[in-house]
Amino acid sequence: MTDPSEAPMTDRPVTVAIIEDHPVVVDGVTTWITTDPGKRATVVASGDDIDEVLAGPGGEADVLLLDLQLGDTIVVDRVARLCTEGRRVVVYSAMDDPSTILTVLEAGASAFLSKHEAGSHCVDTIVAVATDRPYVTPSVAGALLTEAPHLSVQERTALLLWFQSMSKASVARRMGLSEATVRQYIDRARVKYAKIGRPAPTKTALLARAIEDGLIRADEIGEYRSHAAGDQ
């Protein structure tokens, strides 16, 4: 089987597998894709059972377009497993409350597309995801901007110590971890912000986001600066 994490060839359309239990929705999405002026994508499989779709041509699709409710079953828990397998998942759902959106994005989904979005965003989202580019639709962006990412205790601690002017090596010693693990915690925080449409590529930007969202207090940064200096 072709590794689904490999970027699609630039000289062919992006291949899409639609996992959806309403035929009218499948037909609608297929129409959006086939009538795209650039012919940038093509549907290679569809069905209402994840495993059956993946067992056929859908298993090699560049992108999976996944509805979260298949029949009476909510499949939010499958998102993480699919992403761990290296698949690019675009969640396409009417369950577009901020909590659900954050849950699937943090589970690894490449994008969230609300069924209330205009069809014009569908192909753009699929193609962006297939080429590992971020794409946040307008209505979802508005919902996500009101949310802060959920950081683990270890992620917050690593950020706090790093913000207190510690080097990553010093943070690692203070936390009793490897420097690689500390880097991973900091990178995870950046990824979580990027996935909700609020990128923080620099240390200053990440600190501003964390203070803005109440994850870090401004007085915590100055309070231990002298201790941090001693750890350099």
UniProtKB/TrEMBL annotation:
Q: Which domain of life is it from?
A: Bacteria
Query: A single GO molecular function, which one?
Result: DNA binding
Q: What GO biological process terms does the UniProt entry carry, in alphabetical order?
A: DNA-templated transcription initiation; phosphorelay signal transduction system
* Domain annotation Response regulatory: ranges: 15-130
The answer to whether UniProt assigns keyword RNA-binding to this entry is no
Q: Which residues carry this modification: 4-aspartylphosphate?
A: D67
Q: Which CDD domains match?
A: REC_NarL-like (cd17535)
Keywords assigned by UniProt, alphabetized: DNA-binding, Phosphoprotein, Sigma factor, Transcription, Transcription regulation
A Pfam family matched by this chain, by name?
Sigma70_r4_2
Protein name in the entry: LuxR family two component transcriptional regulator
Species this protein is from: Actinokineospora cianjurensis
